[in-house]
Amino acid sequence: MENMNQLQQLMQLGQQMQSRLAEIQQRLENETFTAAAGGGLVEVTADGKGGVRSLKIDPSAVDPDDLEMLEDLILAAISQAQGKARDKLESEMKQATGGMPLPNLGSILGG
User: Fold this and answer.
1) Higher-pLDDT residue of 7, 45
2) Closest by alpha carbon to 52, among 21, 24, 80?
3) Contact, 73 vs 61, CB < 8 A?
4) DSSP 8-state assignment for residue 50
5) Pairing with 109, which of 27, 32, 37, 45 sits 20 to 30 Å away (CA)?
6) What is the mean pLDDT of residues 78-86?
7) Range with the poorest average pLDDT among 18-27, 34-43, 96-105
8) Strand order through the sheet with 42-47
């Protein structure tokens, strides 16, 4: 009988955890994270799931003879913005789970 009570408590804890995680996902989906590269020549804003919401490019960054540099700046800014979103998600998840590790946060970020 004691095992049954423990199992029920474990199931309730799992449901509470699932609800808390869904709440975190919902909140972070509406939060944005901005990062810049090249001293601010390229700026990217991503949502809490890591999806790119906006991209701003300073006109002085556009050099037709060096598009590779601009491409690198864009990728760097995207990577930084997504990294900020991922770090925030991991921080929120750790807090919600009391530090207990969770498998595959990448699936939450759509990755």
Assistant:
1) 45
2) 80
3) yes
4) S
5) 37
6) 94
7) 96-105
8) 32-37, 42-47, 52-57
For 27, residues 6+ apart whose C-beta sits below 8 A from its C-beta are 48
pLDDT score for 72: 95
Tokens of 98: 């009391």
| Nearest Cα residue to 28 out of 80, 84, 89, 77 | 89
Task: Enumerate domains of the chain plus CATH numbers.
Answer: 2-99 (3.30.1310.10)
Beta bridge partners of 36: 43
Residue ranges of E strands in 1-111? 32-37, 42-47, 52-57
Q: How confident is the model at residue 102 (pLDDT cuts 50, 70, 90)?
A: low
* Per-residue tokens: 95: 């807090």
Residue type, 98: G
What is the average pLDDT value for the chain, to the nearest integer? 85
DSSP H or E segment with residue 109 = none
Long-range contacts from 86-89, C-beta under 8 angstroms, 24+ separation: 86/50, 88/28, 88/31, 88/33, 88/48, 89/24, 89/28, 89/48
Tokens of 70: 């601009």
